[in-house]
Amino acid sequence: MASDPAVVLLSGGLDSYTAAAIARVDGFRLFALTIRYGQRHSQEIAAARAVARALAVARHVELDVNLAAFGGSSLTDDVPVPKDRPLDLADIPSTYVPARNTVFLALALAWAETLGATDIVIGVNALDYSGYPDCRPEFIAAFERLAVLATAKGVQGSAFRVHAPLIAMSKAEIIRTGTALGLDYGLTHSCYDPDPAGRPCGHCDSCVLRAAGFRQAGIADPLLRR
Prior knowledge:
The radius of gyration is 17 Å and the shape is globular. 36% of the residues lie in helices and 11% in strands. It has helices at 14-25, 43-55, 100-115, 137-150, 152-155, 171-180, 205-217; strands at 5-9, 29-36, 59-64, 119-121, 161-163. The protein starts with a strand and ends in a 9-residue tail after the last helix. It is α/β, with parallel strands linked by helices and 226 residues long. A five-stranded parallel beta sheet has the order 3-2-1-4-5, with helices on both faces. The longest helix has 16 residues, at 100-115. Helix 6 packs across helix 7. The chain has one domain (5-220): Rossmann fold. It is built from seven helices and five strands; from the N terminus they run βαβαβαβααβαα.
């Protein structure tokens, strides 16, 4: 129903921006949740603020959950971010943050239940991604089942829906979709290992995927013109 609330996980990247915009077009009133989890690419927080403003969200919450206390990832630990890595490798890269999307969705679920919402939006993608296990359709379906078992609303008969509108799209399809919606991707940040000024490295998995997506979409990346 139009104007129903939905909690959207907003990272400041182009995927979460696009997923949130799709949810807005679908008539949801957006409540954006951005997690500061100890990531080295903290520029994405500023990007998330810019994206939240552009989307005119009802409320934007920034939450501190310091996963860097555990380490275990080159995004949260003093470990080099892999560069110029072949993206067709079967291994899970060091940029995987253990259980990150599980933690994020659990926090989104807590806020959704508080808001009386049963809809959560996440920008995961199972095609052009780095092999993360928590970006797969099986994970999203399993979390929906968990949400029913884990909440008062679920026990009382409500069904939660985790919307992952990008999950079967290529990066080029995502970019074309967002461009058609009028999104300004120059507001976003994708790089895992930016320089001190926030400029993308151009060589990490995320930069390579972004560049390939814009190239395949036949669209210039506005971030590179700024």
